[in-house]
């Protein structure tokens, strides 16, 4: 190994002599290139990386002690029949179905005005807490306002039905109207 390294070095020197290039200039270039490469590797490997948005989402979900979907949860597709039938220029577009959850967008004239959802609180028991102190009712079920854009009802102490405004023109009154259009009685029979 030692001899092959010496042989290669001699071969390089002879090649440089044939080209007429100053050997000191090449060794200076090699040294400079090696130094710059080493510095670049050192700087990039020692730099602290900011957490990605996925890392942050993972931390938030584990911090909430959220559990996986429980086996007794209803299939998301079983909720679809309880969503309101669109009328007066509105269109309902189902966007997501998974175990314990179904979601649909409410559109008017092609523009999304609200998102409607039904979720099984067996997957998120902490969702029940906000309804405990509720005095408001929609169609006889406890109701809460969530922020400035959301309204929800709790059906059969298990299913959360929610309408979220996506357009400022879709008001609290509109959300309450659409919540009352859900087949809440039918949903309460689902157990």
Describe the structure.
The chain has 191 residues and is an alpha+beta fold. The chain folds into 2 domains: 2-46; 76-189, Protein Transport Mog1p, Chain A (3-Layer(aba) Sandwich). It is 38% helix and 25% strand. The protein has 6 helices and 7 strands; from the N terminus they run αααβββαββββαα. The chain has a 7-stranded antiparallel sheet with strand order 1-2-3-7-6-5-4. Strand 2 (101-108) and strand 3 form a beta hairpin. The longest helix is centred in the first third of the chain and has 24 residues, at 23-46. The mean pLDDT is 80.
Q: Which characteristics define this entry?
A:
7 strands, 191 residues, Protein Transport Mog1p, Chain A, 2 domains, 7-stranded antiparallel sheet, alpha+beta, 38% helix
Summary, kept brief:
By secondary structure, the protein is an alpha+beta fold. It has six helices and seven strands. It is elongated.
What structural class should be given to the helix and strand makeup? alpha+beta
What percent strand?
A: 25-35%
Principal-axis shape equals: elongated
Order of helices and strands: HHHEEEHEEEEHH
Topology of helices and strands:
Elements (H helix, E strand, L loop, with lengths): L1 H18 L3 H24 L6 H11 L26 E9 L2 E8 L2 E10 L8 H4 L4 E2 L2 E6 L3 E6 L3 E7 L6 H10 L2 H6 L2
Antiparallel strand pairs: 1-2, 2-3, 3-7, 4-5, 5-6, 6-7
């Amino acid at each position: 190994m030692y001899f092959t390294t010496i042989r290669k070095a001699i071969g390089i020197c002879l090649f440089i002599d044939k080209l007429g290039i100053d050997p000191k200039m090449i060794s200076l270039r090699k040294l400079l290139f090696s130094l710059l490469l080493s510095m670049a590797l050192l700087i990039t490997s020692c730099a602290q990386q900011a957490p990605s948005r996925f890392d942050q989402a993972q931390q938030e979900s584990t911090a909430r002690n959220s559990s996986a979907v429980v086996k007794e949860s209803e299939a998301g597709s079983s909720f679809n029949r309880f969503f309101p039938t669109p009328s007066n220029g509105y269109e309902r577009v189902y966007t997501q179905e998974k175990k314990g959850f179904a979601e649909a967008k409410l559109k008017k004239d092609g523009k999304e005005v609200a998102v409607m959802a039904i979720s099984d609180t067996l997957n998120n028991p902490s969702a029940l807490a906000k309804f405990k102190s509720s005095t408001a009712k929609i169609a006889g079920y406890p109701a809460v306002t969530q922020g400035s854009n959301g309204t929800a009802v709790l059906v059969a102490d298990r299913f959360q039905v929610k309408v979220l405004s996506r357009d400022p023109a879709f008001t609290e009154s509109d959300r309450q109207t659409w919540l009352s259009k859900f087949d809440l009685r039918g949903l309460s029979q689902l157990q």
